[in-house]
Amino acid sequence: MGVSGSSADAAKQDGPAQPPPSTPRRIDVHHHVYPPEWFAAKKDFILASSDNPPTIMTQWTPQRSLEQMDQYGISTAVVCLGNPGVWFGDVQESRMLMRICNEYMARLGGDFPGRFGAFAPLALPDVEGCLNEIAYAFDVLKMDGVHVLSSYGERWPGDPFFDPVFAELDRRKAVVFIHPTAPDFCANLNTGAPPSILELPFDEARAVASLVFNGVVTRYPDIKFMISHAGGPIPVLATRMDQLMRNPRIAERLPEGVPAALKKLYFEVANSTVNPSAMAALNALVPPSQILFGSDYPYVRIEKTVGGLDRLDYGPDMLAAINHTTALKLFPRFA
After folding, report:
1. Distance of alpha carbon 334 from alpha carbon 293, whole angstroms
2. Does 288 reside within a domain?
3. Around 152, how many Cα atoms within 13 Å sit in the side-chain half-sphere?
């Protein structure tokens, strides 16, 4: 199976990948990997819960990532685990899966220096386990940030239950990548569309709303929250969200208002650059210094985001900001 074997051995089967010197240097902040032990442990659940073809995961190897990165001018991919993540309701299992995934991704970065960074996946409902894994991921493995899902059961990231985790991440000035998932109560809605089409972007909006309206973004200003897919509906809903400032309880948590809270967020543009309206809404919400390149590989073909970006007629400074300058502010080690 394509996800078996060590990262270095898998890549060396077809020879070393050499990036073409003439291509632009992109940093991809939304790039999935599938650690073999994680996949083996949860294979049946993973394949049953995905509406993507199973070959997307079973045929992934580090070499395939490197080939695609070289083809589209990506110097570094900051990788994260694919859905459904590491939380399946069992604390001991989640701690095992966090450790398996984080050590695999750290080895991947060591096998290919400069080509891979990594977000450490967290099983957010296990607060104690997350705190222990944050220390291990940052202090021992030297990972680049953490990755959490947009919801867990009936809790979204802004739930006060998770405050100890975000307090620690704030202390560490961490980058926190929020990746969308389908919330439990939406999993079987009969909309005629699979969850990845509607429920993931809508749940991303719920996650951002929970972080903003529960005051997490304000209380923990040193966290760099990164939202995927150009924020989904958030840029369009920003003005509507600001109407809640009429509520004194919410206004107390957001002394600078909703727009100011949203402008603290970072957004990557995977699968969004093909939609000029989505990009226009995002550009109206935040400056280029808050926008990053992401591919969502292998779920989305990299050429889709690259090609869409090339057709947007952005100036060289804006393209540089999206492709690498903004990312280098968050991950200076990749300069």
Report:
1. 14
2. yes
3. 21
Residue 171: helix, strand or coil by DSSP?
helix
Question: Which residue shows structure tokens 């060591």?
Answer: 110
CATH number at residue 150: 3.20.20.140
Q: 91-111 and 36-49 are packed helices; what angle lies between their axes, rounded to 10 degrees?
A: 120
Count of structural domains within the chain? 1
CA–CA distance, 209 with 234 (Å, rounded to integer): 9
Residue 256's CB is within 10 A of a number of other CB atoms, namely 10
pLDDT tens string 266-313: 999 999 999 999 999 999 999 999 999 999 999 999 999 999 999 999
Of 154, 98, 91, nearest to 126 (Cα)? 91
Instruction: Identify the helix (H) or strand (E) that includes residue 78.
Output: strand 74-81
Among 77, 52, 25, residue whose Cα is nearest residue 268: 77
Q: What is the C-alpha to C-alpha distance for residues 230 and 110, in angstroms, rounded to an integer?
A: 30
